[in-house]
Amino acid sequence: MHFEVLSTDIISRARRGRLTTAHGVIETPVFMPVGTQGTVKATTPSELLEVGAQVILGNTYHLFLRPGLEVIQHCGGLHKFMGWDRPILTDSGGFQVFSLSKLRRITEEGVHFNSHIDGAPCFLSPELSMQVQQTLGSDIVMAFDECPPYPSEYEYTATSLERTLRWAYRCRAWGEKRRNGTHPLLFAIVQGGIYHDLREKSARELVSLDFDGYAVGGVSVGEPEPEMMRAIDNSEPFLPQDKPRYAMGLGTPPQLVEMVARGIDMFDCVLPTRLARNGTAFTATGTMNLKNATYRTDLRPIEEGCSCSTCRSFARAYIRHLVKAEEILGLRLITIHNLHFYLNLTKQIRAALEAGTFARFREHFVANYVRYEPQVSERESEVEP
Amino acid sequence: MHFEVLSTDIISRARRGRLTTAHGVIETPVFMPVGTQGTVKATTPSELLEVGAQVILGNTYHLFLRPGLEVIQHCGGLHKFMGWDRPILTDSGGFQVFSLSKLRRITEEGVHFNSHIDGAPCFLSPELSMQVQQTLGSDIVMAFDECPPYPSEYEYTATSLERTLRWAYRCRAWGEKRRNGTHPLLFAIVQGGIYHDLREKSARELVSLDFDGYAVGGVSVGEPEPEMMRAIDNSEPFLPQDKPRYAMGLGTPPQLVEMVARGIDMFDCVLPTRLARNGTAFTATGTMNLKNATYRTDLRPIEEGCSCSTCRSFARAYIRHLVKAEEILGLRLITIHNLHFYLNLTKQIRAALEAGTFARFREHFVANYVRYEPQVSERESEVEP
């Protein structure tokens, strides 16, 4: 078995688990930093290890377009290319095809689109997405899905879902036939939008195909939080206990805690890296905009007691100066702090689950955190540095 | 004595020296990375130590305008503010006032100008420049000078030089009166443009005032190399043997070697950091533009045999991808390599001087290097990250 539930919470649906991949073991609940273009923005692999990253995410769509498979294959796969020898999860490219590129046509076979880089016509299908992810050398491969915009009409969502289920079946079949000794894990994605019957249908049918894990898709950070939690609540009960569950592209720190309580094991989100580049840091009491004049002569670290390399060495006043002066070091220092914050949060969650104190941790954390509501979709669809 | 000449070359005017400052000893010839806004662009202080930086440069003009003296003073000086406890040399602000700001008026008293950030009216004088540099906590303070554009008419250059000499005298007087236990070293700047008689006059008069070191100013990387060397040759013979000589804002790697041979001990230049942000790396055989398609699948490091952290971990193919995708990690990795290259070059020069093999080193290095001629002035006048 590649996934083991080590313990479960008495009060909530939270689980402490362990996922084994070709490049090592992942302790769950886990947060996965987003490495869209073969780099978690502004960081080195050794910095990722230092902040406690166990697994990172690579974006199939971006890497497929640039540098292209030929380059990555020549360099020995994504791990060797970027110098990261721990697990990598790759998405299927579906989300970015629908959100980033100029979409040309969806057919039963796959999706015709134009590259966002140079407009070149491209094509992705379930089989091609599997092949690309296998060539990248991914440890956890995601099934190719259609990701309808939020909110979508019932009828469109239902039709799209049917096609995504047929695509999932093709991904499963491709995986069965092709995967060899390297044996990546294959996860399917529950869709169905805001409709509970479609979520249930999606989950049940995917589970009948017996994937290695299940993601909840079609929700992004920009959506109202009740919708986000409802999508989880409408999907999770139909997923098997002995497989990992992954909430794609989510969320804020308290949302992570709430989703863990709803039985989610894995997360990825661009918030810590993207907000860092905007001068915003995460703390246990909420986000902090370091451009604020309040910090002009503030000698304290971003977060007192924080053990990250930024907080051990630099004061808010200095980081504020760097951000105001648009110096790269400013966003570097906040990126490190933010990733450490997210990774440390999941570490604390794991410790609380082990100690049987998760309910208290959850209540305390969520109460202390001043909620941050991003205005736009924060799921990884960016191309700018 | 704060400066000691340990040995001199038999053939050229090159010297191996040692400069003692309040924050430690500097082995010369030395290259000083440029930290314009309180950070050597894209690097942390610990990375600077790792690449072998002994001393860095801070720009008085930039720091005076942003974050301003009050902030840096509150934070305990520039060393503490930026987390660098080795020597810092600060320029006087003169060069940037004349190149970056909207100049309003030069008077005998000082210079009225408008901030390049917000247009606010500002004033700098010899005494104010001294005071600002002392407040920053600089270890090596530069006298406030007027830096006429290249080329300037004889008459203008002569008039400007007279004023710069009177300003140097005022800096000297201010230093005598005010400098206390912290005792920064005070360097004067030889001006005189392309006119050998003015260079001689400038050097002789400054030497009569007995500064702690002498810079050759008014030359920038964009100028024809013969002019650059002529400015050194027209100034150096009139400078005392027992004081350090500093070529401000210069130059390419072979130019550094040639200036060492002409008796220069100290250098600063934005080329390694600025070209890195443009995707260009330095090697012993010349510059390498990593955007070039040649490197698409090149598994070699930037420079084979290089011991920097970039070359130890990353291939050209990966760095090229990062540069093409405009990822911050790309410019970070090249910045580290380029700084290491410049610092390692001066280390090799010092070793050659110690071993008595400098003539051979010089000949070999200059012959192997394919000259790079930047098209525009590369002296630190940038504000963009």
Describe the fold and architecture.
Two copies of one chain form a homodimer. In chain A, the strands form four sheets. A nine-stranded parallel beta sheet of chain A has the order 4-15-14-13-12-11-7-6-5. A three-stranded antiparallel beta sheet of chain A has the order 1-2-3. By secondary structure, chain A is of the alpha/beta class. Chain A has helices spanning 45-50, 60-65, 69-74, 78-82, 94-99, 126-136, 154-178, 196-208, 225-235, 253-261, 271-277, 309-313, 316-324, 328-355, 358-368; strands at 3-8, 15-21, 24-28, 30-32, 34-35, 56-58, 88-90, 102-106, 111-114, 121-124, 140-142, 185-190, 213-216, 245-247, 266-268, 280-283, 286-289. In chain A, β9 (111-114) and β10 form a beta hairpin. Chain A folds into two domains: 3-269, TIM Barrel, CATH 3.20.20.105; 276-368, no CATH class. The two termini of chain A are 39 Å apart. Chain A is built from 15 helices and 17 strands. Chains A and B meet through α3, α13 and α14 of A and α3, α13 and α14 of B.
Q: Detail the poorly predicted runs of chain A.
A: 373-385
> So, CATH architecture of the largest domain in chain A?
Alpha-Beta Barrel
Compute the separation of the termini of chain A in Å.
39 Å
Please report the two chains with the greatest interface, counting residues with C-beta closer than 8 angstroms to the partner's C-beta: A-B, 40 and 40 residues
CATH class of the largest domain in chain A: Alpha Beta
